[in-house]
UniProtKB/TrEMBL annotation, chains A, B:
Protein name in UniProt: NBD/HSP70 family sugar kinase
PANTHER family per the UniProt record, alphabetical: BIFUNCTIONAL UDP-N-ACETYLGLUCOSAMINE 2-EPIMERASE_N-ACETYLMANNOSAMINE KINASE (PTHR18964:SF149), ROK (REPRESSOR, ORF, KINASE) FAMILY (PTHR18964)
Top-level taxon of the source organism: Bacteria
GO molecular function: kinase activity
This protein's UniProt keywords: Kinase, Transferase
Species of the source: Kaistia dalseonensis
InterPro entries: ATPase_NBD, ROK, WH_DNA-bd_sf
Keyword match RNA-binding: no
Keyword Kinase: yes
Family: Belongs to the ROK (NagC/XylR) family.
Length: 387, 387
DNA sequence: TTTGTTAGTTAGGCTGCCTAACACAAAAAG
DNA sequence: CTTTTTGTGTTAGGCAGCCTAACTAACAAA
């Protein structure tokens, strides 16, 4: 795994070179003096670092930038030697794939709509992933450099190799798909991925802690506390669909009932059951419900408000446990601004102050998140785990 | 605050010296070769580090240890120049105080039983804290070195200076007590302190993540995820007494009701209401209830089991949110091994696998935790914040 | 007393950063 | 056109903080 013939034999970079590389990966192309000042490195140190990074083509010069005065500054970006990553969102309705450089320049992307909505991970999805990855690899060009890492976002709980892998369905992705050998592989839950994406590129940018709550077919949460994604011992952190319900004196709570009560299915069933004949045909799905609610339909608005209150109550529960200060709503229902005020009102009334925001990334959140995690894995490979 | 006449003027230690100092603070007295090998420092580097640390008396030699063969090794410990810390647990029934060196050698300790159980922070407690601290400072001896930090564990929510201080009652401690000027001051919630103590010295030693759940007069949780204490934006992480309740279809949840339902008061009220005449007088308090349950009283056992189930349900909620993998039970009721099996059964049935353990530290947990936090603050002062 | 083993010091080297001073490029001033 | 000004990049040399190698010191067993 380590002595691949295309790999440079462990460059063992100096600290400043690593810092410069990280800066280019995270901040995108930049000039030498700019990087130097932002990392407070002296010009000689910058020279040495750049020279070190240019040898294995980890970085490359892409031109010169003229300021108002004085000599123009050389601009650099991550080079082909740094390689690329493949990120796959193996979702229940789509398979989304992105191939990108470590500084997130998109090399290819693919979206496959699955023939039937697969409620959970199964072999059908695995085959789709295999096909998409094969297609992406066939399109690979030498200028992309070596494949450094591959990330897979799964709609299942994900546990590390030390955990109880058997109890999750995470292994099913590999029933028809074999990941490229000798490449770092990252598995992560799709909601956690979306949280990571919102953290770095979306509605939670700059927040130290927050919760991403996905409200759609199922309900789930991704938790970031102190800039760290919280996974949990069983990969179950944020599995708020698994909350037991009801929780009241005398009632006997059932595990996992929250999902059944708060998921789209049950919600729409309640809407249909409670839809007055006078109001016309009940909406067929949540999209339609949201559409007519958005145009002022009172009956629809009432149901949306009621659901917002339920979601708000669940969020209040999470706030009382971890007090994240910020919640980003995503998913089919959560992305709608119609839900937001009701959720915010209920959550704040029932618990401690929380700001509630809508997602900024929508359906792309998951791929972008797993891409980020794959890039982090690639960096660990290139720079050698520490920090 | 920085140029106190008793303070050494910023020694600016080298990295290895800091590592050695930290090792002595955390691991207690040790020999030079032992520290060197455990930090993988060469003998010359060790020499330099020790010399550096002996100058300001941060460490001192306390003897020589003879191995089976060869020259004896010099043994060192944290010296008087490192100073000491004061840790105070301003609890609702007791004020507990510890004065200790940075390597946790106890210099004095005091325990004051408050005349009446103060349900919350008030001026009475503040006066008691002032008196105890004054007594401790009067007993101070020159060999203790300078006071480096002081920690205060409070039975309130605690927020940092950036937070909304007014909404907590944390400022009330200072109504009759003025902390020593120019000394780092650490405030922390008492349950969080207990969690920190269990993390380092108690039932959660070695666990990366866990929740400490205090079950007593009130119910609260301290959360440690990835070895980091989770405080929350409003200092409200772990405020599970504030969970809204009931949570069921049609019911309207009330904020903070969980505390009323799960606290000792309400619990004992239910016990009394449901106590059959044939079973004799109902127990007066939880201690008595636990005592007769422990000796096999079926009626008492039934109530304990019922309460264990309720606690287990709350823990299951927490597990579905953060999945800590381990829960340590503490507090008046939680410390009892009678509760444990019922809690473990319910929590595991309703959520994901969690190990449940009893506290190992009991009533001392909180002081030990705030002591630890004060020591960490003192280290930050001595070594200059980083890492 | 000798020998073997471990503890600690001294001498000297290497790495990774720094500052100072100089060479280079490009616009502005003469 | 030079010349000046200003910012970019390189070369030379220094210093902190670690290392290895080799020596001295202390102690037990032969």
């Amino acid at each position: 795994m380590d002595q691949n013939e295309t790999d440079a034999p462990k460059p063992a970079l100096t600290g400043s070179a690593r810092a410069v590389f990280r800066q280019l990966v995270e901040g995108g192309p930049s000039t030498r003096p700019h990087i130097g000042s932002s990392l407070s490195l002296s010009r000689p140190t910058m020279s040495a670092a750049i020279a070190e990074l240019e040898r294995p083509q980890y970085v490359e010069m892409i031109g010169a930038v003229r300021g108002a005065l004085g000599r123009s500054a050389a601009q650099y970006r991550v080079g082909s030697g740094a390689g690329h990553v493949i990120a796959v969102d193996a979702g229940s309705t789509h398979v989304r794939l992105r191939v990108s450089t470590l500084d997130r320049r998109l090399l290819t992307s693919r979206v496959l709509r699955l023939p039937v909505s697969q409620i959970s991970m199964n072999e059908e999805v695995s085959r789709a992933v295999a096909a998409e990855v094969a297609a992406a690899q066939a399109a690979m060009r030498p200028s992309w450099g070596p494949l450094r890492a591959m990330g897979l976002a799964l709609p299942t709980r994900v546990v590390g190799p030390t955990g109880d892998v058997a109890s999750t369905r995470q292994e099913i992705v590999f029933s028809a798909f074999t990941p490229p050998p000798g490449v770092a592989l990252v598995l992560e839950n799709n909601v956690n991925c979306a949280a990571v994406a919102e953290q770095h590129y979306g509605a939670a940018r700059g927040a130290q802690s927050f919760a991403y709550v996905q409200v759609g077919l199922k309900i789930g949460m991704g938790l970031v506390l102190g800039e760290q994604l919280v996974r949990g011992r069983n990969g179950a952190a944020g599995e708020i669909g698994h909350l037991s319900f009801p929780f009241a004196p005398g009632a006997s709570p059932q595990p996992g009932e929250a999902e059944h009560y708060l998921g789209t299915e049950a919600f729409m069933a309640r809407v249909r059951a409670d839809w007055p004949e006078a109001a016309g045909d009940a909406p067929a799905d949540t999209a339609e419900l949201l559409a007519i609610a958005g145009s002022g339909h009172v009956e629809a608005l009432r149901h949306v408000a009621r659901h917002a209150l339920d979601i708000g109550a669940v969020i209040a529960t999470c706030v009382s446990v971890v007090d994240p200060g910020l919640v980003v709503l995503g998913g089919g229902l959560g992305a709608s601004p119609l839900l937001l005020p009701g959720v915010a009102e209920a959550a704040n009334r029932l618990s401690y102050p929380v700001e509630i925001r809508n997602t900024l990334l929508g359906a792309d959140a998951t791929v972008l998140g797993i891409e980020r995690l794959a890039i982090e894995a690639a960096m660990a490979v290139l720079l050698g785990d520490e920090a």
